[in-house]
Amino acid sequence: MSASSADPASTPIGEGQDLENAVTRVEQELGRLFARIRVGWREAAVTVHPDLQPLGYQVLISIASGKATSAGAIIERLQTDKSGVSRQVRQLEELGLVESMPDPEDRRARVLVATDLAQERIAIARERYEGRIGERLRSWSAADLDHFVELLGALGR
Asked: Is the pLDDT of residue 48 over 70?
């Protein structure tokens, strides 16, 4: 961060407005990107199963990756409500995409596991999604991609 961006009093008059315009453009582009990501999740969900909702896809991905294998962990990871996760898990079980198994470390608890069918369909959905985004990203230079990763990381902190 430069001295001029850290101290508004030292920012030249024109630069302050340019900065505000740039922030507005970033917010608009992030909005477009998030909308596109939501469309991608919807398309991926339908690829896995025509009745699957985008939240159900996110729940399934969390389970399949092993990053969240209990309802509580899914709620925490996705920052969503218990009833929504419960409905999605129930649907995933009904569709044969998830099974509830005894936790090997605590027999009183249950863990959620993605079925082989789920893994196959997730792979197809990811291949399609990554094909679309990969096509766009591969048109950038490695240096631009590295810089983009740095900027995204800074924004996410």
From this structure: yes
